[in-house]
Structures are given as structure tokens and as C-alpha cells.
Amino acid sequence: MAKKIGIEVSLAVSEAVRAADVDLIAAYPITPQTHIVEHLSELVADGKLDAEFVPVESEHTAMSLCIGSSAAGARTYTATSSQGLALMHEILYIAPALRMPIVMTLANRSLSGPISIWNDHSDVMTERDSCWIQTFAENGQEAFDLTLHAFKVAEHPDVLLPVMVNLDGFTLSHVVEPIEMMTQAEAKKYLKPYKPKLTLDTKHPITMGGVGLPAVYTEAKKQYETAITASKKVIIDEWKEFGKLYGRHYKPIETYKTKGAEIVLMTMGSISETAMTAVDGMRDKGISVGLMRFRLWRPFPLQEFQRAVKGIKTLAVVDRAISYGSQGGPVYMEVKSALYNQKERPQIFGFVAGLGGRDVTTDTFEEIVTKATRYAKKGKGPVYEMIGVREK
Amino acid sequence: MAKKKIDAIIAWQDLELGMAMTEPGSSAKLKTGDWRSQHPVVDQDKCIKCGLCWIYCPDMSYSPGKDGFYKWNANYCKGCGICALECPKGAITMVMEEE
Fold it and tell me: Mutating which of B4, B5, B10, B12 best tests the A interface, going by the most A Cβ atoms within 10 A?
């Protein structure tokens, strides 16, 4: 077992990409993702990683180049944040449509405007329908492990879809944590060489990215939708395989003290660690509270979620993004939708917190639990609620 | 695009991975002339066999024949009328497609 070392999480992600022995990295620097690609460029320049590093002129080009590279059969990586992801948007949907197993780290940052470099989930939530597999890291070790897992899943012959690994900008990307690293040799026990099904090859010419006339567009969409839905099995199997090899176990839905809990908080990403501390504190005060979080966001782990929720009376969903003019945060709406047809379902209340880098503390979670408990007793709450807004 | 016939209506399961087209030159099998509302008619008495229709056609719907005239191919012609516009002798007339 490798030794744990103290390292900035961004650099640990770069080291995971190095352990994955990628062939090509195309990226453009953007806060708070920059340290990841900066370190990768150093690794390539110093001869520690045998890969092409292409410093492209925009994220639109980064994703275009990644698709070309992946189409040629190369293991391909990029990373971005916020506006960078938004600039990629046009090309983003093409990667899964061409079945390109690209891996991207998204250091989550709020979208403008107002201009903000700080953390929330508004960037990824705008791309949740893009057919990218999306996982969320809670801490540095998870960021490292999920990166390796991402390559394994993406390149699996039954999947062949791109994977986006989300980690919170600054609050996770820029902190130093003790992380167990892996060398390329150690990672190779898990991650086998990429064998593409179809590649661009002048000896066997094929066309990728042809026009989908009305007679075939729907069928193409059906293929992508079927592929991402079916990828859940591989995602779970590969987490099991990872656990067997390295002793760290991951699941689509992670739970903490939910057994017999009257009220359960739902989170994603690094605020989940704060939420655990908050749960411990509230438990000490005699409040029956637990925590549930999505590690896997796309494909949405519907059955796993429905099973995990059984017996829970109240859910308080904490979103880090707003879907303007709808019913609050996207996670909240999807959670409600996932349970609507269930015979027994909890009362669900939605809260939006931690926008644009606003701190989410244990007090925030206590406030949310207090409010959700009150609404549950009344049997009614607001459509959703923004936490911590200063009012006149 | 398809593993089977290119112009057939196929099931999604028969689509190649990522809708790739694994057969080179298959676009010739995709007949794209069916949305045309007009088609060119060549008056061979006026035609001087200069080949400008063949050169200007954006869909390669003319090809040189053995007799020196240029043959029109209905499968790919969209009825744009460029040939009629460019013909120096006014030998090409665009006529409406019949119902």
C-alpha cells in the first residue's frame, strides 16, 4: 500500500492523470482549475509523463481537440471550470455522440454573472443533459480515485462515453490533504490500455460525425441514452473492482447515519464533509438526522436512490445552483421527480446554499434541518428556500 | 451510418457506434434529390457542349456523356438553377416538378 503524502488536491488530480498514463492533454487555464493543467504541463515538460500537452487558445478548441485525439485512439484528458465549460458547450454534446471516452476534471465554479471565480455547482448543472457521465468528489482522495475510475469507465467497451469528475473549486481543489497516490505501475493493475472500437485510420477510412437526417436522429439519440443508462452497471462494477484492489470503496449514493434518522440531508461534493460534522453535532444534541449524498449524478442512480430513501420521513435537499424561474435547485427537482411515483415517499424540502463561494458551515446545516423539521410538522413548506440571503 | 442498407429505415440497434459510417463512399447511396421543386431541361439544339453546367453544379449532378452532351442526374439535383443561370447559350430552362 502506497504512503499517504500531503499534497494540494489539484496536483493530486494531475498525478492521477499521470498514473493513468494519458496520451494527450488539451487544456486552457481557468481559475480554479489552472493548477491541474499547470502541473500536467510541468510533468510533460520534465519528461515525467510521456504525453502531448497542447496549450489551446480556448476551451472550445480544447474539447474539439480532445474529440480528434480520442477519435484517433489516444487516451485523452482535459480540465476546466465555469466559463470554460460554458465555452465548450457547443462541442461538449458531440463527445458522447461520437462515443469518445474523454476524461475531464471540472473544478466547480459559479457561472457569471455577476462575475465570480468562487465555488458552486452552476457550471455542471447547466450540462447535466449532455450525456457525460458525472461523478462528484468529496475530498482529495476521492478526487484522485475518481479520476482513475473515470478512465476505466469511459474506455469500457460497454460504455465508451466521456466522464466528468467534479470537485469543488478552491474549497477542495486548492486545499492540501493527505492522499494515497499511485504510480503508473500500480494504476496499471486497474487501468488497462485503451482499445478503441472505431478509430480514424487512413488504411480503414470511416466517417465520424455525419449528419443525422430526421430518419435517423431519433435512433442516434436512443443509442446515446441507452448507453449512458447502461453505464451505471459498469460504473458500480468498476468501483467494486477498485475497492478490491486498493481498499477504498465507493457507491453511487453514500449515506451517513441515515438508519432510523427522522430527517436526512442531501448534498453533493465537498460540503458533505461539513454536513457530516453538522450531523454529528446535531446527533449530540439529540436530533435524529442523517446525511445522504450523490457521488454519481449522471446517469442518475434512480433505483439506488429509491432504495436508500425507503423509510425516511423527511428529506432536506441542499442545492449549490438555481434553476431560474422553476422550483429551486436542479437536485431538489430531480429528487422529487424520482420519488413522485413511489407509494411511500418522504416529505421533500429544497434549499439553495453556498452560491458563488458563500460559506456553507455546520450552522447552515443546522438552520436547514431546523426549517425542514418545522415544515415537515406543518406538512408544508415554501416551493424552495435560499439560505443566508440578507433581507432588508 | 448503418450496417445494412444506407437508405433503409433501420432500428437504433443497427446504428454503428456513435453513428459512424464505416463504409467509404457511402454518401453516393444517399439520394438527396427528392426535395427539389424544379429541375433543369436542356435544349440540345442550343447547347454548345461547353461543360459550364458540369463545372458549376454544386452537387455534381451533371456528367460528361460519350456524345459530348452533359447528362443530368436526378438523384442528387436540388433544383438550385445555377446551371440555367450560368449556361452562356440559355439552353437550360428550369421547369416545375410535376405533382
Answer: B12
Domain that holds residue B73: 32-96
* Contact at CB, A220 and B22, closer than 8 angstroms: no
Nearest CA in chain A to B17: A99
Together in a domain, B43 and B72: yes
Per-residue pLDDT reduced to its tens digit, A293-337: 999 999 999 999 999 999 999 999 999 999 999 999 999 999 999
Amino acid (one-letter) located at A129? D
Per-residue pLDDT tens over the stretch A49-83: 999 999 999 999 999 999 999 999 999 999 999 99
**For residue A284, what pLDDT band results from cuts at 50, 70 and 90?**
very high
> Tens digits of per-residue pLDDT, B26-72?
878 888 888 899 999 999 999 999 999 999 999 999 999 999 999 99
The total of other beta-carbon atoms located within 10 Å of residue A192's CB is 11
> Which one-letter DSSP state was computed for residue B16?
P
Q: Please say whether the beta carbons of A329 and A293 come within 8 A.
A: no
* A161 in contact with chain B, both atoms CB, cutoff 8 A: no
Same domain flag for B22 and B38: no
Same domain? For B48 and B89 the reply is yes
Give the C-alpha separation, A18 to A340, whole Å.
Answer: 44
Q: Do A139 and A104 touch, CB atoms closer than 8 A?
A: no
The answer to whether the CB atoms of B12 and A206 lie below 8 A apart is no
**Contact yes or no for B20 and A212 at CB 8 A:** no
Interchain CB distance below 8 Å, B12 and A219? yes
A98 at interface of B, judged by CB pairs closer than 8 A: yes
Closest by alpha carbon to B79, among B63, B59, B98, B51?
Answer: B59
- Nearest by CB to residue A212, choosing from B9, B17, B19, is B19
Q: Are residue B42 and residue B86 in the same domain, yes or no? A: yes
Residue B75, domain CATH: 3.30.70.20
Segment B10-23 shows an average pLDDT of 93
> What are the structural domains, with CATH classification, of chain A?
4-246 (3.40.50.970), 253-386 (3.40.50.920)
Q: Cβ–Cβ of B24/A212 closer than 8 Å? A: no
Write down the pTM of the prediction.
Answer: 0.92
B15, containing H or E segment:
none
Residue type, A263: I
Number of domains in chain B: 2
Q: How far is CA A382 from the centre of its chain?
A: 28
Q: Cβ of A212 under 8 Å from any chain B Cβ? A: yes
> Residue A247 has which C-alpha cell?
481498499
- Using the beta-carbon criterion (under 8 Å), do A208 and B18 form an inter-chain contact? yes
